[in-house]
User: What shape does this take?
Amino acid sequence: MRKSYPALRNGRGALLKSSSDSDLQHRKALPGKRKLPPFPSIFAVAGVSIHRLEGSAALEGSAIHQPSKALACEIRERELMLQSMTLQSMTPRFDTKRCQMRLLQSLVLLGGLSLPAVTFGNTGHSQSEPFHDSVYHGGPQRIPGQVQCAYYDLGGEGIAYHDADAKNSGSGGLNPADGSYLNQFRMDEGVDISYTKFHDQIDNNPYERVQPPEGQLYVGWTEPGEWFNLTVGVEQTGVYAVDLLYTSNRGGEISLDLNGKELTGPINILSTYNAADPIAWRQWHHWNVMKDFAEVKLPKGRNVLTLRVVSMGNMNFAYLQFRPKK
Assistant: This one.
């Protein structure tokens, strides 16, 4: 029995006129028009077939001939195959996109609930770089020795540090931007920085336990969840005792990481609060050295320490002193 196929129609629904196979394969384009492709492109959307001749915009108004029955049969078979493939793939494609959207929403939600993580490269080392400026250009801070907290790494928020807000409450804030090095030290970064002052008995008051150096830079206004990286150069593999020059008006906890991995766990920081001081704001300026607050094993060479504020906050960190453990 002879099969019949629906007549082909052009993009506007008009019937295509008949022609021979030879005519279809060897016809010449009208002046200024493109040659017709050997068969029309077929698009299936939700089971509805749309026949379109490529370059149809250029062929509008021209006489288009119907291909031979053999070619029409081939076109119809391709159309049915495309329809079947499209209907089978529509739901999986939709589900895939929906899953991708749900995954993205979950990651965003987790990002909002989680503390930002230190960014590390394939080597396990931080992507941040050692601090340097017009005054300090010594590269990684040396161990044994003092590691200055205000010399935390370069790299910005989420790379070298995380701070609760983008404003530097010390440099350019409490300490007005007057062109001086100390007042404007790293004032465009989110980590809050100030320095010790000896006028009006601010940091040389009689209620502190030790007197810090005048003009000592420190990281302050700290909050739980904040952290900063310190790139160091360790002279020899070994165990080191660590001291901390700090203030803390109510105590708290900090921790240290090494190259992206936990080094110490939470460490309790003693409060420096002194009820005898009649000036309330000076509770943030009772300096103390916490001796041997940590004992850590460090490998020789370049490493990245991360100081994290675990609980309470409101602590000021001046420097970490590393000594070989005897």
